[in-house]
Design brief:
This protein is α+β, with helices and mostly antiparallel strands. It has a single domain, classed as Nuclear Transport Factor 2, Chain: A (Roll), CATH 3.10.450.50. It has 3 helices and 6 strands. Strands 2-1-6-5-4-3 form a 6-stranded mixed beta sheet. Helix 1 runs antiparallel to helix 2.
Length: about 160
């Protein structure tokens, strides 16, 4: 069997196509990680601004929001406490963030340094906690499905 240029071109095209397809999941995962990081940042901004519409848009109706003290909130309780300014955030700083994609879910971990208190500012408290979040891709958007905070060991 003679090998023609056409055979070589077909083989080369197949190799390039397979390589491109093999790289596609990594590219898609990088895009998802960037989208989740943006959603985390937008949630932080919405909490600081007490923006009810954005808080609702960024969270799932099935939200389970766990605080380091053991309080668990639904989506409506989480949003209402912030939007009504029962709890106001003066600052929120996230650090050491990691994001792992698992299908249509994302696992986010970070350290949280925040200052919060009543809206009148009469008694601010500082929280230094660890946070685990689970985000779920719903349609084209990433929504916070679950969050659990925990106290960090003293260092």
């Amino acid at each position: 069997m003679a090998i023609h240029r056409r055979h070589i071109a077909t083989a080369a095209f197949a190799i390039v196509a397979v390589s491109a397809l093999a790289a596609f999941p990594a590219v898609a995962q990088d895009a998802d990680k960037a989208a989740v990081a943006e959603a985390v940042a937008n949630l932080t901004k919405a909490m600081l601004a007490a923006d009810k519409a954005k808080l609702e848009a960024l969270t799932s109706p099935q939200l389970s929001y766990g605080h380091s003290g053991g309080v668990i909130q639904t989506q409506s309780a989480f949003v209402d406490v912030i939007a009504s300014k029962q709890t106001a955030y003066k600052s929120i700083e996230l650090s050491s963030q990691s994001i792992d994609i698992a299908g249509t879910n994302a696992i986010v971990r970070h350290n949280w340094l925040g200052e919060s208190g009543p809206a009148d500012g009469s008694k601010w408290s500082v929280s230094k906690i660890g946070v685990l979040q689970v985000w779920q891709k719903q349609g084209a958007d990433w929504k916070l499905l679950a969050r659990q905070a925990f106290t960090r060991p003293a260092t």
